[in-house]
């Protein structure tokens, strides 16, 4: 280490340069994958939309579907409606998703290089050498700066190189990506100081933080074409409020920048108040003896998952309640015709909207299903599976118990989300029968989620390192569920998604066949995973 | 069959790396069997094959009369295992982990559990993430020792324990032996094993290179003496069976072959001994024989080629 700092600041930052190089070296595959993946995503959308909708009238057809309040929930403010071109529409309608992925990249980056390092004890080794107190956090923020900078430049270049987009707006849009990434990096810098455990930090930042930011923006934007006051409370809203290519205003980015600086400063201040490896919230003492529950593999799996299931149920319950209450606004007069058709026509507009909510929730709960199996994989790799499998617990019952708990979790979360959506709709529309109808509609969509769980279980048994590949099913299902209807795709493309088969209750009558077939597929997948797991070595180091 | 563990020609590959290379191990019922070897020799891999966590690529293994892979569950009811690196659930307390692992094995003796918690001085109310390495090891040890398993597989069980706790561990294992249980105790430190073990097997590069009682093995090697004498001890260097003689600060240090110890000690007594320490051979010295052989063979080959 060459830096021999003079003065206090120099000492607390000693070694930052070396740490930055170390982090970049460790992320040499991960970070370029994120950056290139995000750029490819954006290149795909900027090129796809003009190809898929070659004429003005094609474009107007989709816009009429996205223009309503329900559409704004996903796209954000619709400044593009004032001047409808590819230039205004593509960033306006799809830019929000880009920002979401960039925020996620930044959150995971900061957690990976700060809290995970402390939890594994590697940070202790690093801090014992000539490395200042603030160096690890500073280095992580510098790496976030580099990553977000690279994303911003590539995104801007993709648009500048395309004659569709004006240069000024492209630069503004890229800058929006950059400051949003840094805002969430700063936010995460605070969260990692608070918790001792990286999994808690991930759920707090990615789940609660990012989820809340998205929800506040969604609820705020539903109220008005340009968003409402509520929208402005979400960091996700600020870059979209710059209205690139329409208003081209830079000042909302000042909010993002200030947010990033203030949160990062708070992170530094908090980190100075705690020990290496510790969080601000100390661990509490617990029971000296295990309760009767902790006697079986199922009991253990339930104990490890129950808190996650509870938080998912609460989170999606709140989301469901607010979306259910929005059913009141799903009035035929306000809806563009194309959307009316998708939702089942003017007479059934409310039922169509609620039916769509069921599919939407199922796609989100599938995220939980994949995370549950990834959690089990962490148990195996982390050496906590070994002592359990060295007792009289068979491979079959260990994996089986965890898959079963995952399935129970899926049912609970879907039931709570459905009941909450139903409650919201019932209170908004004054029809109490909706509570039961919407709950039943959500439960009708449990089997496709179980298929995703089955895919993850099969991967865990057969190709454990490839367990995250189950994400592909979720992402594909989400794309088909949201943009699928907007693209002119063959039926096969829809049939491949497990989410497109169950009856659209309450719009349609319950159908047993898809539920039975999907459940059978899920069971077969899980059984194959169990059989494969019995044949392979346990992955322990 | 009186052998609790019997492996013949056990082979395990991890990709291109051969972790076990024809391992023969036999552990007799009722003995404490030391399983010695340097880091990376294959001790943990052997134990994991015996637990059915890894599947052997060749050879055969029998444990408690069953097949470790296909009869895993029924065998696990009769044994208890302590891994070398104990990982606990961050949100479960040590007490909960002890009970959980004991119950999953088929139940544990509550009085014994409480006694062990007391003897090992463990706070069972702390959450898993709050324990040090040594305390995590205590959790796994207590859970294993509180069971009535007939076979204990202990993989470097005391690596993180302080000397006081190490002593408690030795007492408890002594009790286990008195009750007629069988213990396979792996370690890379000879001193830990020699107090307890009836027999030892030394593993190196995936093979058992020596097996027998420590006495059997020791006659093959040398004891190290450090002496301070009234008269110069230089003459000792010329005696048969004495090696590496070096004078240090008015003292002398040398190694003596086991069969010549008696003669050397008599000769020393004539020199007016003021202080004497003798150290039994260490694992390193036992192993050095094998490294030495191999190095000699290796050098021989080279010499051959050079010629």
Please tag this protein with its features.
A: 541 residues; mainly alpha; 2 domains; disordered N terminus; B: 307 residues; alpha/beta; Rossmann fold; Alpha-Beta Plaits; four-stranded antiparallel β-sheet; 10 helices; 13 strands; disordered C terminus
How would you sum up this structure, described in words?
The complex is a heterodimer of chains A (541) and B (307). Chain A is mainly alpha-helical and 541 residues long. Chain A folds into two domains: 16-278, no CATH class; 293-541, no CATH class. Helices cover 70% and strands 0% of the residues of chain A. Chain A has helices at residues 7-12, 16-26, 30-52, 56-66, 69-75, 86-113, 115-120, 122-127, 135-160, 167-194, 198-223, 237-241, 252-271, 297-325, 337-342, 349-381, 385-389, 395-429, 433-443, 446-462, 471-482, 491-495, 512-535. The longest helix of chain A is centred in the C-terminal third of the chain and has 35 residues, at 395-429. The radius of gyration of chain A is 24 Å and the shape is globular. Mean pLDDT of chain A is 87; it is low at 1-9. By secondary structure, chain B is an alpha/beta fold. Chain B folds into two domains: 3-214, P-loop containing nucleotide triphosphate hydrolases (Rossmann fold, 3-Layer(aba) Sandwich), CATH 3.40.50; 222-280, Alpha-Beta Plaits (2-Layer Sandwich), CATH 3.30.70.260. Chain B has ten helices and 13 strands. Chain B has helices at 43-50, 72-76, 94-105, 110-119, 133-145, 163-178, 190-196, 214-218, 261-269, 283-306, and strands at 3-14, 17-28, 32-36, 58-63, 79-82, 151-155, 182-187, 199-204, 207-212, 222-229, 242-248, 251-257, 273-279. Chain B has a six-stranded mixed β-sheet, with helices on both faces. In chain B, helix 3 packs parallel to helix 5 (133-145) and helix 4 packs antiparallel against helix 5 (133-145). Chain B is globular, with a radius of gyration of 23 Å. Mean pLDDT of chain B is 86; it is low at 300-307. Chain A binds chain B through residues 196-197, 283-290, 294-297, 300, 303-304, 307, 382-384, 386-395, 535-538, 540, and chain B through 48, 51, 53-55, 72-74, 76-77, 81, 83, 85-93, 95-101, 103-106, 124-127, 129-130, 140, 153.
């Amino acid at each position: 280490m060459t830096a021999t700092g003079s003065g206090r600041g120099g000492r607390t930052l000693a070694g930052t340069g070396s740490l930055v190089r170390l982090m970049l070296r460790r992320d040499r595959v991960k970070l370029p994958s994120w950056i290139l993946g995000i750029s490819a995503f954006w290149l795909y959308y900027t090129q796809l939309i003009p190809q898929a909708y070659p004429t003005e009238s094609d474009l107007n057809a989709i816009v009429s579907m996205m223009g309503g309040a329900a559409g704004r929930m996903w796209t954000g403010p619709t400044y593009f409606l004032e001047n409808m071109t590819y230039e205004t529409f593509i960033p306006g309608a799809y830019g929000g998703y880009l920002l979401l992925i960039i925020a996620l990249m930044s959150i995971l980056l900061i957690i990976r290089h700060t809290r995970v390092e402390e939890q594994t004890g590697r940070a202790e080794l690093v801090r014992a050498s000539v490395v200042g107190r603030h160096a690890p956090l500073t280095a992580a923020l510098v790496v976030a700066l580099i990553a977000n900078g690279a994303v911003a430049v590539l995104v801007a270049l993709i648009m500048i190189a395309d004659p569709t987009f004006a240069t000024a707006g492209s630069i503004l849009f890229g800058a929006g990506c950059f400051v949003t990434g840094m805002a969430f990096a700063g936010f995460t810098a605070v969260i990692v100081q608070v918790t001792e455990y990286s999994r808690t930090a991930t759920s707090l930042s990615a789940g609660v933080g990012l989820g809340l930011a998205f929800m506040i923006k969604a609820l705020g934007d539903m109220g008005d074409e340009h968003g409402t006051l509520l929208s402005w409370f979400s960091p996700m809203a600020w870059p979209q409020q710059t209205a690139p290519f329409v208003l081209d205003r830079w000042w909302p980015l000042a909010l993002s920048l200030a947010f990033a600086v203030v949160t990062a400063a708070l992170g530094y201040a908090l980190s100075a108040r705690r020990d290496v490896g510790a969080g601000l919230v100390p661990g509490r003492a617990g029971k000296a003896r295990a309760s009767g529950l902790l006697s079986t593999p199922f009991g253990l799996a339930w104990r490890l998952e129950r808190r996650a299931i509870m938080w998912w149920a609460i989170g999606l319950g709140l989301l469901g309640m607010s979306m259910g209450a929005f059913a009141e606004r799903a009035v035929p007069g306000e809806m563009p015709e194309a959307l009316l058709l998708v939702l089942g026509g003017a007479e059934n507009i409310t039922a169509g909207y609620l039916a769509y909510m069921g599919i939407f929730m199922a796609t989100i709960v599938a995220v939980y299903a994949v995370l549950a199996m990834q959690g089990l994989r962490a148990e195996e790799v982390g050496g906590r599976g070994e002592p359990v499998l060295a007792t009289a617990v068979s491979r079959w019952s260990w994996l089986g118990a965890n898959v079963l708990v995952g399935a129970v979790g899926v049912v609970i979360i879907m039931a709570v989300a459905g009941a909450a959506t139903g409650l919201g709709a019932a209170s908004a529309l004054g029809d109490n029968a909706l509570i039961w109808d919407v709950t039943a509609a959500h439960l009708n969509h449990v089997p496709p989620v179980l298929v995703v769980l089955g895919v993850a279980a099969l991967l865990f048994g057969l190709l454990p390192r490839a367990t995250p590949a189950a994400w592909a099913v979720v992402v594909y299902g989400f794309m088909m569920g949201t943009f699928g209807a907007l693209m002119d795709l063959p039926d096969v493309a829809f049939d491949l998604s497990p989410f497109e088969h169950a009856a659209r209750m309450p719009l349609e009558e319950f159908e047993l066949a898809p539920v039975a077939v999907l459940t059978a597929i899920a069971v077969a997948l899980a059984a194959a995973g169990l059989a494969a797991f019995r044949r392979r070595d346990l992955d322990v180091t | 069959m009186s052998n609790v563990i019997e492996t013949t020609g056990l082979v395990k590959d991890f990709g291109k790396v051969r972790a076990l290379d024809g391992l023969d191990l036999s552990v007799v019922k009722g003995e404490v069997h030391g399983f010695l070897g340097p880091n990376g020799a294959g001790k943990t891999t052997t134990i994991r094959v015996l637990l059915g966590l890894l599947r052997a690529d060749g050879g055969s293994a029998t444990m408690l009369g069953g097949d470790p892979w296909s009869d895993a569950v029924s065998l696990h009811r009769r044994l208890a295992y302590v891994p070398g690196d104990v990982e606990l659930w961050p949100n479960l307390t040590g007490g909960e982990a002890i009970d959980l692992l004991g119950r999953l094995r088929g139940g544990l003796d509550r009085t014994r559990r409480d006694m062990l918690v007391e003897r090992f001085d463990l706070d069972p109310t702390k959450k898993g993430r709050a324990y040090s390495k040594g305390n995590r090891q205590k959790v796994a040890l207590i859970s294993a020792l509180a069971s009535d398993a007939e076979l204990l597989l202990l993989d470097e069980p005391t690596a993180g324990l302080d000397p006081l706790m190490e002593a408690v561990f030795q007492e408890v294992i002594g009790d286990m032996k008195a009750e007629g249980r069988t213990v396979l105790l792996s370690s890379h430190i000879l001193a830990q094993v020699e107090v307890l073990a009836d027999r030892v097997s030394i593993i190196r590069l995936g093979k058992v290179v020596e097996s027998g009682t420590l006495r059997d093995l020791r006659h093959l090697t040398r004891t190290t003496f450090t002496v301070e004498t009234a008269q110069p001890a230089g003459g000792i260097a010329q005696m048969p069976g004495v090696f590496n003689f070096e004078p240090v600060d008015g003292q002398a240090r040398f190694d003596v072959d086991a069969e010549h110890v008696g003669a050397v000690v008599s000769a020393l007594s004539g020199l007016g001994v003021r202080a004497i320490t003798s150290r039994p051979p260490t694992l390193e010295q036992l192993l050095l024989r094998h490294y030495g052989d191999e190095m000699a063979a290796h050098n021989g080959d080279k010499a051959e080629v050079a010629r």
